[in-house]
Write a structure and sequence with these properties.
Blueprint: H1 2-58, H2 65-73, E1 95-102, E2 113-122, E3 127-132, E4 138-141, E5 145-148, H3 151-158, H4 160-163, H5 167-179, E6 185-190, H6 191-200, E7 204-208, E8 212-214, E9 219-221, E10 224-228, H7 230-238, H8 248-267, H9 270-274, H10 276-289, E11 290-292, H11 296-307, E12 314-318, E13 327-334, E14 337-344, H12 350-357, H13 362-368, E15 371-376, H14 383-393, E16 397-403, E17 413-416, H15 423-433, E18 436-437, E19 453-457, H16 459-463
Helix pairs in contact: 1-2, 1-10, 3-5, 6-7, 6-10, 7-8, 13-15
């Protein structure tokens, strides 16, 4: 009996010990969770404050800090954690972003645009195209007159009250006129910010295409892979005074595109994303040296989108004066002095606009080499000939022009006789003429030749 009581007390004590151990474990986990919670809250508040302050600094509008907090944490469809709203241009299938590089404080001509690039993104296909525009392009700046395109930003900054605009907005307007593209967003960065971002990323690896020497600043670059810090990379993208293929603005524009893609790759790497001190440093640099009209939720969406871009689907083009280039050199009088400028070889911006609008498909259009017949479906004499000259300036293969059987077409119509084998040309012509592709076959008597595509011009072409 005594032994039985002893065994019973022993079992009770064991149960008490187990319960006490569980209580201690639960208490320990509570302490750990509380500590983690405190760390999360402290980090979250610090990061939120950082994002809000940076957001207010770089986004050029009049919103308050509270507006940014709402956009970050609870803005409904615009919340960073539940973004359903589309970016500008996303519904149309193309987002256009203007990148401006300016000297900034401490540089000669601090507001002149040293780098001008239009970055276009096709969200559905995750394709990107970079179009570099030389700073010597001769353009009409609203409210100012004709000047070099790099001066648009400077004029907007200097005469903002008289022109009722800003530097970036005036640059946006001018570049939109040149390319005939809507410029949805802009990002402006100064030289010092460019250097600091590359240094914060630990430098970038650049494959230098050949040996070249900057004889003005006495910098030598050697063919092959080079790890560059911010200062070295800035020299690489700015150098112009070089003998040979790497001299001038056009080669420099290609190097700028090359460096931009390397910065993107390094910034989106998993090592950068997980490096909190590095992200903190990048926040500070961006706040001091970058300005944009992206809203905070748009930045987040744009960032997520950029991670999906296939490096093999990046198209790069530079406006230049090479054999098949779209520009020619000239001299004009600017400020009472003779100045070197670049003008479109066609006499207008139509070729540049065609390149900008079809930059994703231009090489494919050339490969298709579709034969085109143009018919005048109106009573306006010479309309088909005018359309022929327009298309030939854009390197389309127009094999015949004639009058249509009827001259009462209200709208321009496109007929595809290629069996669907010229899709990129068809799409480009649809956009060019703002026309539809007819689903009704064109009769043989209405065709003069065996062209791949027949375009019948309507009254809307005259108005257009």
């Amino acid at each position: 009996m005594k032994k039985t009581n002893f065994d019973h007390h022993l079992r009770v004590q064991e149960l008490k010990d187990k319960l006490e151990t569980k209580k201690k474990k639960r208490k320990l986990w509570k302490i750990i969770l509380i500590i983690l919670g405190i760390l999360i809250v402290v980090f979250g508040v610090g990061l939120s404050y950082k994002v809000v302050s940076i957001g207010q600094s770089i986004v050029q509008d009049d919103r308050s800090a509270w507006d940014f907090v709402k956009g970050l944490l609870g803005g409904g469809a615009k919340s960073l954690f539940n973004i359903e709203e589309k970016l500008k241009g996303e519904e149309e299938g193309r987002i256009n972003v203007l990148l401006l590089g300016v000297g900034g404080p401490g540089h000669e001509g601090p507001n002149l645009a040293d780098t001008i690039m239009v970055v276009s993104i096709k969200p559905q296909a995750y394709e990107v195209a970079l179009l570099s525009i030389p700073r010597d392009l001769y353009v009409n700046i609203p409210g100012i007159g004709y000047s070099k395109i790099n001066a648009a930003h400077a004029y907007g900054e200097e005469y903002s009250e008289r022109l009722a605009t800003t530097g970036v907005k005036l640059a946006q307007e001018v570049i939109s006129n040149v390319t005939d593209l809507p410029i949805h967003y802009y990002i402006r960065m100064d030289f010092k910010g460019f250097e600091k971002i590359i240094d914060a990323l630990g430098g970038i690896d650049i494959d230098v295409p050949c040996n070249f020497y900057d004889y003005l600043h006495h910098n030598m670059f050697y063919k092959g892979m080079e790890h560059m810090n911010g200062e070295r990379a800035l020299w690489y993208v700015r150098v112009r005074y070089v003998e040979g293929s790497q001299g001038g603005d056009f080669a420099r524009a290609k190097r700028q595109q090359q460096v931009l893609l390397e910065i993107k790759k390094k910034a989106l790497s998993i090592y950068t994303i997980l490096d909190i001190p590095k992200i903190n440093e990048l926040f500070d640099i961006v706040g001091d040296h970058l300005r944009t009209n992206f809203e905070v939720w748009e930045m987040k969406r744009f960032y997520d989108m950029s991670k999906e871009v296939d490096p093999n689907k990046v198209t790069t083009k530079v406006l230049d004066t090479e054999t098949d280039g779209l520009l020619i050199p000239d001299t004009v009088i600017l400020g009472g002095m003779k100045a070197y400028v670049l003008k479109p070889r066609s006499g207008d911006f139509s070729e540049i606009q065609n390149l900008a609008q079809n930059i994703f498909d231009l090489d494919k259009i050339k490969q298709e080499n579709a034969s085109i017949e143009i018919q005048n479906g109106t009573k306006i004499s010479g309309l088909a000939y005018e359309a022929k000259l327009t298309l030939e300036k854009l390197d389309y293969n127009v094999i015949r022009i004639t009058n249509a059987q009827k001259q009462d077409y209200e709208k321009t119509v496109i007929y595809d006789f290629s069996g669907g084998n010229k899709p990129y040309t068809i799409k480009a012509l649809k956009d060019k003429f703002e026309a539809n592709v007819s689903q009704v076959p064109l009769s043989e008597e209405d065709r003069e030749d065996r062209a791949d595509i027949v375009v019948i011009l309507g009254q809307d072409y005259v108005n257009h």
